[in-house]
Design brief:
CATH superfamily: Metal-dependent hydrolases
Oligomer: single chain
Largest sheet: 7 strands, parallel
CATH architecture: Alpha-Beta Barrel
Order of helices and strands: EHHHEHEHEHEHEHEHEHHEHH
Helix content: 25-40%
CATH class: Alpha Beta
Shape: globular
Structural class: alpha/beta
Distance between the termini: 26 Å
Number of strands: 9
Number of helices: 13
Length: about 375
Amino acid sequence: MLIFDGDCAFMLGAMERDRDLTLPLDEIRSAPPSGRSWVPNIPDSEAVVSLPEFRRGRVAVIVAKLSGRIYRPGSPLWGYRSGDIAYAMAQGQAAYYRILDARGEARLITAAGQLRAHVKEWSDADDHSRLPVGMIIGIEGADPVLWPKQIHEWWNLGVRVVSLSHYGVSSYSHGTATGTEGGLLEPAPELLREMESLGMILDVTHTSDESVRQAMDIFGGPVLASHQNCRALVPGERQFPDELLNRVIDRGGVIGTSLDAFMLYRPGIDWLDIPDRRRTYAREEVTLEDAADHMDHVCQLAGNSLHAALGTDLGGGVGWSGAPHGVDSAADYRKLIGILEKRGHTHDDVANIMYRNWQRFYEKWLPS
C-alpha cells in the first residue's frame, strides 16, 4: 500500500536546517555541523524525513509546501520583516524543489494525468529505491503573494494549493494564534476570486474559524484541510470544530490528520503562547493511536472513509521530538495501516485514508 502525505514542509529541513535531504536519515543525523543554522535548537538528530526514507516507506507523493511568513507583533513564531523578503524566500524554496525535479530525485506534479501516471509507476514497481518522489507544491500562508493578481505568477510556477494564513495575522486573514473570531482582511476576497478563476485549491488549515467561514462563503472552488485535527478530541484553536470539518466534507474536501504531537496531545496547549515540547509532555504520551482517533472521528462525521487522510506536518518545523511515539522516520507512517486494520477498517477503507482520498481529490481538481 502506498502513502500520500498531504502536508510536508520538506524544504524547511533543507533550507532552514541546512540538511541534505537526498541522504539516508542516519547520514543526516550524524553529519558534522555546517556552522550555519537558523534554528539552532533543532539539531540534525531531530530529522524525520528524507527522500530515501520516503522511498523506504512507500511515500509516493507529498504536498510540498513553500513558506514565507511576515512577522507581526503578537505572533508566537518568527517571520520575515517584509513581504518582499517573504516572496523572495518562497521563490528560493520553489527553486529547491525544481532542482530536485531536474536531478530525478523528485517529480513536480502539476496536472491530473501526471499524478495518475506517477501513482501507477509506484504501484507497479517492486523496487522504489530509485523512483522520484512526487511533489505537489502548495503555499503555507499567503504572505508571499504580494497582491491578489500575483497568484497567477505562482500558478505558472506550479503552485496548486494555497492557505490564507499560517501563524499570526497574514496579509489576508487571521490564522493560528490569533483566536477564532478574527476574520478575513480587505485583500482576501479578491485573492479568493483570482484563485477560483485559476482552479487553485484553497487549504483552510491554520486559518481562524471565522476566516474559514467567510472564505468558504466567497470561494466556490475546491477546498481541503491539509493538516487539520479535531477540536472534539483535542481542545485549542489550531484544531477545527465539527462544524468546520463538516463544511469541508460537504464541499467534497479531504482532511489530513497531522502528526504534530501538540495537535494530538489530549490536554491541549495555548496556541497564543506555544510551550517547549520537551517540557510539556513525555513523548510516550502521544502515539499513532491518537492520530488514528482523529482519522476515525472524520470518518464518523462523514459516514464513510472518503474524507480522512494523512497530512503529517513533519519534516520542517516539527522534528523527531514533536512526532508521536513510535515515529522515528517517515517510513514509520506505515504503522498506521496496522492500527487502522485492527480497529476494523477494511482494506479499501485503509487505502482510502493512506493515499486514495488524496489521489482522487487531486486527480479531480488538478488541471487536465
